[in-house]
Amino acid sequence: MTKPPLSGLGGWLWLVQLGLALQLAVFAAQLAGLIRYLFADGGWPAIIDSQAPDYHPLMAPLAVYELAELAVLLLATAMMLAGFYRRLQAFPAWIALYLLACLGAVALECVFILLMPSTRESVLQNSLPALLRTAVLAAAWIPYFRRSLRVRNTFVH
User: Fold this and answer.
1) Which listed residue, of 23, 45, 91, 157, carries a Cα 20 to 30 Å from 66's Cα?
2) Contact 112/62 with Cβ under 8 angstroms?
3) d(CA 58, CA 115)
4) Rounded CA gap, 19 and 42, in Å?
5) Are 116 and 59 contacting, i.e. CB atoms less than 8 angstroms apart?
């Protein structure tokens, strides 16, 4: 008796579903929080005030970068979920690019933060762990999506 071929959104792919859904919620919450901080709580005037004690000329570009980064990643995550549930043949390549883009975005944010003396400590507390976590996820999932029989049998449309 032969086993049916592995296919469907089960197996390890349930972790991908969960991860993408959670990431969508995280990006949405982070974007909403940043918008609220910058535009409702007076954050923008504070970071562009050259007389402020913690002022740095890169703070405003970092804030704009973070807004753009979160908006793009939120949209990309929604597109990943749509491609995942539609079982698009291109999804394995898309998710690899998505994971690499997330890694690049976090790395660029780390560089920005390291260039500002007042924020360097936050790299060790927040950004470096995020960079390592993203690198580990990319290192685990990209090969899985390239080699998995379940992936090949599932993403066929």
Assistant:
1) 91
2) yes
3) 8
4) 33
5) yes
Candidates 141, 140, 70, 74; CA nearest to 106 is: 70
The per-residue pLDDT string of the chain (157 residues; one tens digit each, 9 = 90 and over) reads 677 788 999 999 999 999 999 999 999 999 999 999 999 998 999 899 999 888 899 999 999 999 999 999 999 999 999 999 999 999 999 999 999 999 999 999 999 888 988 888 877 788 899 999 999 999 999 999 999 999 999 999 8
In DSSP notation, 18-72 reads: HHHHHHHHHHHHHHHHHHIIIIISSHHHHHH-TTSTT--TTHHHHHHHHHHHHHH
Contact 98, 115 (CB under 8 A): no
Q: Which two tokens stand for residue 82?
A: 């749509």
The residue extents of the domains of the chain are 13-154
CA distances from 6 to 77, 93, 138 (A): 25, 20, 23
Helix (H/G/I), strand (E/B), else coil: 156: coil
